Structure formats: structure tokens, C-alpha cells
């Protein structure tokens, strides 16, 4: 087979898959690895693809009409395609579309074994890079093993910040500063005159970072905080669910608090409903701030909520990966995005706290 024929087959395969491996081309073309590498070098020099370790990826280039003449395919693996991560996915998709790239989704369901299967499946179609929010959170980093280090394409972590010694190398990551988010909510309660605040956290990976913000707030804001061990239900009218809600409300009363921070929206909405069933007024008797702001505005009493920048997080992570694929290796980036506080009825205030303004005392 002559070189021009091989070049055409290579480019055709690249347009189809978005990424090529030398080992696969050796088998497909029936030539030596040296010949394949020489072909890739010539096509790279002509600006028709870009060589990377072990193979090649498409370029992000436009023709005169503004159409993309080759398409990168990148993978995104997340714990869920619903609620919180639906906005993250939409953000990544919007950025991929802006670059003319294709996004392929894998969902782990917060199952570490299933996640490994999804990663392998996404990599198997020849993606050029991978966006991933692992089923394991930062608090469980010691259980990661080699699942990240074994990936042979560029990786950008989303909402995770793993580092040595849990992983062998540093990874680019984009995450929400959830510790700041917790501090943001508690700071707002202090502005409203609350000095004793009860907190209930859902058992999620986000709670790892929320606790850090809560610990900082205890001394920085000079308030009394109570972190409840009660597991609040998201929904349900069964006696066990009602007992959990009543147990937390009893803790709040015993602690002498009229303000609660609840993670997440669903738990906050259910708590408000139960409090009102017991004759409490929200926000007059009980002020509530929720964390996540996915469904907070739809609660019986619209919930004031800390809103992580979910869409922007997906956009930022995807752009970081695409620029790395376009420009080649560069310095590892660790990016933190600040959440906002959306003020609604449940906390009894109508003024918003701007991120980064007056958060800590001098």
C-alpha cells in the first residue's frame, strides 16, 4: 500500500473515532510501527492531525466556511446523569460543541466497579481525553487504586481533588469550593442575627468539603454550631421517615437554634414540610438554608440555597481538556470555582451575599 493510500485511511479512521493508536493502525494497515509513526509525523507536519503519546488525535481547526474539518471525541464519566450532574454535563456539552468536539457519556451510579467498566467502555471507542467525576470522593481517596493512573489519555477531574500518595501523578482538576459554600451560608445566618446554627449533611462526597467549611466557621464566625448525626429522608410518609425528621427538629429545639443549614435541597424541602405540619412557621420560627440549589426553588416555602456553579464547572473542565489536547502538555491546573447564595423565602432575608465579600473577620 502506497503512502497516500495509507494517509487517506488514517484520516478516514481519525474522522470516525477522533483518536488513533499506533498498535491499532499497525494491525489495520498491515505495516510496521515505524511506518505508521512516519505516516503520523507527515500528517502532523501537514496540520491534518496531531501526534500524541501512542498515537494521534484530530485537530481543532476550521475550514473557510467555519465548519470543523475533523472532530475530537472526548469522554465524560459521572456518578449520575440527573440532578446535580445534569447541569455539569450540559456545561461540558456546550463547550464541546463550541470546539466542534463530540462528547460521549458514561454513568457509574456511584458504583466503583461499574465506574471502571464505564471508563473502559468509553476509552474503548478511542476518545482523545476524559472528564471524570469518580464514584469515590476525596474522603475515600485511599480506595482509588490505579484506576486513574492506568488511563492512557489526558484526564481532567471534576469535583474531585486527588493527590499524592493516593495517585501516582498530579491531575488537572476543576472543583467547587464547597467549604466556601458552607461558610457562605453560615455567614449569611450570622448577618441575620443567628448565633446558634444546627446543621444536617447528607452522606455524600460533598459532605467531606462542607465539614471543612463548618470547622472553619466555628471559630472564624464565633458562632455555636451543632452537626447532627440524624439521617434525614428525602421523601416518604412512613413512620421511620417522620421519626427522623422529628428527631432532628427535637435536636434543633434542644440546641436552642432557630436556623438550620441542610444538605441537600430534597432534605431541606422535606424538613420544612414537617416543621410546618408541627405548627412551626418558616422562616419566622425556623430559618432554613439548603445546599445544592437543584430543586430548592420548588419547595413549599422556596428555599434559600447555596448554588454550586454546576454548568460553569462542566464548561471549565471541558475547555481545560480541549485546550490541553490542542496545545499539548502544559502545567497542571487546580481550579476552584466559588458558589453563590440564592436568597429566597425560607431564611427570612432579601439581601444576597456576594462571593468573596466580607466573608472572614480581620
TrEMBL record:
CDD domains per record: PBP1_LacI_sugar_binding-like
Keyword Methyltransferase: no
Residues of the HTH deoR-type domain: 3-58
Keywords: DNA-binding, Transcription, Transcription regulation
Pfam families: HTH_DeoR (PF08220), Peripla_BP_3 (PF13377)
PROSITE patterns noted in UniProt: HTH_DEOR_1, HTH_DEOR_2
Source superkingdom: Bacteria
GO molecular function: DNA-binding transcription factor activity; transcription cis-regulatory region binding
Protein name as it appears in the record: DeoR family transcriptional regulator
Taxonomic lineage from the root: Bacteria, Bacillati, Actinomycetota, Actinomycetes, Propionibacteriales
